């Protein structure tokens, strides 16, 4: 497993490959075919909007793709990164984060794994509730950068990012595993959680 401290993730992504060149926000800036993580972070900041009030968790601010953003309306082939699942605050993630914020004792003092962390909202909620240690896990490295940005936006840290696919692995050293909006049919969920609920 690859475990990355959130502050060291920038260096790890120095060679993230981007296949398309784009002009960003009308400023004629061109990204090269190999975006540095700083460029990815800048791209996220320049092409997302800070959102909070219109979600179930107005106390958490997130950079998300909204109808006000250029790429919401642009041809999808112009999007230079992997599919931006991290850029949407999915309903299950909102409900999970809201539940934690309403019930802080669920995460307080615990080692928490946010599986399929996306924008990092549940990890942020767990941190705000006083979790002793939070790991945000998503197989998309860009999601990890978005999580870093969103953690900083909410004044929390450090959290760690784990980029390996944990499905099928044995969870270790976690008191609480958070999972929202990853499975949409019962057989897939049962296949995934069977080994974990028995652990």
Secondary-structure arrangement, i.e. CATH architecture of the largest domain? 3-Layer(aba) Sandwich
- Strand sequence of the main sheet, in spatial order? 1-6-5-4-7
Q: From the alpha-carbon coordinates, what is the Rg to the nearest angstrom?
A: 17 Å
How many runs of DSSP E, i.e. beta strands?
7
The major β-sheet equals: 5 strands, mixed
Tell me the name of the CATH class of the largest domain: Alpha Beta
Judging from the principal axes of the Cα atoms, what is the shape? globular
Average pLDDT, all residues: 79
Low-confidence segments: 1-36
Structural class: alpha/beta
Query: What is the terminal-to-terminal distance?
Result: 18 Å
Report the order of strands and helices.
Answer: EHHEEHHEHEHEEH
Q: Layout of helices and strands, plus pairs?
A:
Blueprint: E1 3-5, H1 9-12, H2 37-46, E2 49-51, E3 62-64, H3 70-73, H4 91-102, E4 111-115, H5 121-128, E5 133-137, H6 141-153, E6 160-162, E7 176-179, H7 186-198
Helix pairs in contact: 2-6, 4-5
Overview of the structural elements:
- By secondary structure, this protein is an alpha/beta fold.
- It has two domains: 11-87, no CATH class; 91-198, Vaccinia Virus protein VP39 (Rossmann fold), CATH 3.40.50.150.
- 32% of the residues lie in helices and 13% in strands.
- It contains seven helices and seven strands.
- The strands form two sheets. It has a five-stranded mixed sheet with strand order 1-6-5-4-7, covered by helices on one side. A two-stranded antiparallel ribbon has the order 2-3.
- Helix 2 crosses helix 6 (141-153) and helix 4 (91-102) runs parallel beside helix 5 (121-128).
- The longest helix is centred in the last third of the chain and has 13 residues, at 141-153.
- The protein starts with a strand and ends with a helix.
């Amino acid at each position: 497993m690859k475990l990355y401290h959130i502050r060291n993730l920038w260096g790890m992504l120095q060679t993230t490959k981007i296949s398309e060149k784009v002009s960003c926000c009308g400023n004629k800036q061109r990204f090269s075919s190999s975006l540095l993580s700083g460029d990815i972070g800048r791209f996220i900041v320049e092409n997302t909007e800070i959102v909070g009030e219109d979600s179930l968790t107005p106390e958490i601010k997130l950079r998300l793709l909204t109808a006000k953003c250029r790429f919401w309306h642009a041809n999808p082939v112009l999007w230079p990164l992997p599919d931006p699942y991290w850029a949407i605050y999915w309903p299950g993630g909102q409900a999970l984060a809201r539940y934690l914020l309403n019930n802080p004792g669920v995460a307080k003092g615990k080692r928490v794994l946010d599986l399929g962390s996306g924008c990092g909202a549940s990890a942020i909620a767990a941190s705000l509730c006083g979790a002793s240690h939070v790991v945000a896990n998503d197989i998309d490295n860009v999601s990890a950068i978005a999580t870093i940005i969103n953690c900083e936006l909410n004044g929390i840290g450090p959290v760690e990012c784990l980029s390996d696919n944990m499905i099928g692995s044995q969870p270790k050293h976690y008191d609480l595993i958070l999972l929202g909006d990853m499975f949409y049919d019962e057989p897939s969920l049962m296949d995934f959680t069977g080994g974990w609920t028995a652990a």
